[in-house]
Specification:
Blueprint lengths: L1 H8 L3 H35 L2 H49 L3 H4 L4 H43 L1 H26 L1
């Protein structure tokens, strides 16, 4: 299945690789912003060091801009890969339909074929685009959040680390029961 999918994604491989990498860089920016705010609150405000507050504030703005740039580029490359993949699938489907005999075409209704060529392929494209972004974002965000939590306060981070597997098992049980 993945080999077949890879054939349609081959020309967009660079886009499909860049999208998750840029997503990871966006997540790093998202994780750094609260840490920088904590630096201002914990060090800058108590000491009244306006130069430090300004320096960290400018750093926060630059980190936010970096995150915005990486997120936008990730979305662009993800969309390019996802919809390029869909375009290739649609082209292959069209070529396959062209090889059908009249008796084979009679087995399908025209609206059914049109739906498969338009709506179904569009949905596949959107799933491909979102998978490139979200399948990377959530796990990386969780890992970096745990690392940052341990860096800030080890005792509270242990509670966080213990709660995550419990939450994961609970969600897995609910998904298993809901699937039926």
């Amino acid at each position: 299945m993945f080999h077949l999918m890879g054939r349609y994604l081959r020309q967009y491989k660079t886009h499909a690789i860049l999208s998750p990498i840029l997503m990871i860089l966006e997540v790093v920016a998202d994780i750094l912003a609260p840490f920088l705010m904590a630096e201002i609150i914990d060090r800058g405000i108590p000491s009244g060091d306006n130069a430090y507050i300004t320096r960290i504030g400018i750093t926060m703005i630059l980190v936010a801009l970096w995150g915005l740039l990486c997120g936008s580029a990730s979305a662009f490359f993800g969309a390019k890969a996802g919809f390029g993949y869909g375009s290739n699938v649609r082209d292959a489907l069209y070529k396959k339909i062209q090889t059908f005999s009249f008796s084979q075409l009679d087995l399908f209704s025209v609206p059914s074929l049109i739906t498969r060529l338009t709506n179904d392929v569009t949905i596949i494209s959107q799933v491909g685009m979102m998978t490139l972004r979200m399948a990377i974002r959530a796990p990386v965000m969780m890992i970096l959040a745990i690392i940052m939590a341990f860096r800030i306060n080890k005792d509270l981070a242990f509670i966080f680390a213990i709660g995550l597997p419990i939450l994961g098992v609970s969600v897995a049980i609910i998904l298993f029961l809901a699937r039926k």
